[in-house]
Amino acid sequence: MFKIGDYIVHGRNGVCKVVDITHIDISGADKNQLYYTLVPMKSADSKIFYPVDSNKVMMRSVLSKEEAKNIVSAIGDIEPMWIDNDRQREEKYKEAIGSCDCQKLICIIKTLYARNQERISQGKRITYVDDRYLKEAKQNLNDEFSIALGIKPTEVEKYIEEHIKK
Questions:
Q1: Theoretical Cys-Cys bridge with 38: which of 48, 77, 90, 138, CB 3.0 to 4.6 Å?
Q2: How confident is the model at residue 166 (pLDDT cuts 50, 70, 90)?
Q3: What's the pLDDT at 120?
């Protein structure tokens, strides 16, 4: 069980802070059930109420500093995924983001950077779907790495670039 003040990763909501663990009085909610009250980093003015004992959505602790550093040093080995079918590709993006796996997020980011460069070189635009998933993957990765590494989310890309060059 997580504690108040913990940062966790909650499915597609990304990094959230546990601000309360309580019973809630909302229509349709089990009044005997304990719920986490979560505040997502990407939407600090919203709250998510999630049952403490549920496992419907992937939920885990934020990576440790060492785990984040290990993933950054392995970025070069993470292969992009190439799927020609648009529907299958979008399904894989959804699955990867919902898995809360940083390596899968990096895979999406690498894939979409390469795909977007290819489209631009052909005189085509970046698709809405690709742009949306790229932004979501980057935000979730940057939020988690910022907590793990003790830096601002806006500094994560620079941190990664500097450590890849080494």
A1: 48
A2: low
A3: 93
| Tens digits of residue pLDDT in 88-114 | 989 999 999 989 999 999 999 999 999
Among 91, 80, 72, residue whose Cα is nearest residue 115: 80
What is the C-alpha to C-alpha distance for residues 133 and 135, in angstroms, rounded to an integer?
Answer: 5
Name the 3-class secondary structure at 12.
Answer: helix
Return the structure tokens found at 125.
């635009």
Cβ-based neighbours of 32, under 8 Å, separated by 6 or more: 23
Integer angstrom CA distances of residue 96 from 11, 61, 79, 165:
10, 17, 14, 26
Please answer whether residues 21 and 34 qualify as being in contact, where contact means their C-beta atoms are separated by less than 8 angstroms: yes
Element (H, E) at 95: helix 86-98
Sign, Cα dihedral of 161, 66, 113, 42: negative
Residues 52, 84: contact at Cβ < 8 Å?
no
Please, are residues 81 and 88 in contact by the beta-carbon 8 Å criterion?
Answer: no
Nearest to 133 by CA among 165, 100, 108: 108
Does residue 110 contact residue 76 with C-beta atoms inside 8 Å? no
Residue among 148, 166, 147, 141 at smallest CA distance from 157: 141
What is the rounded average pLDDT of the residues 29-46?
89
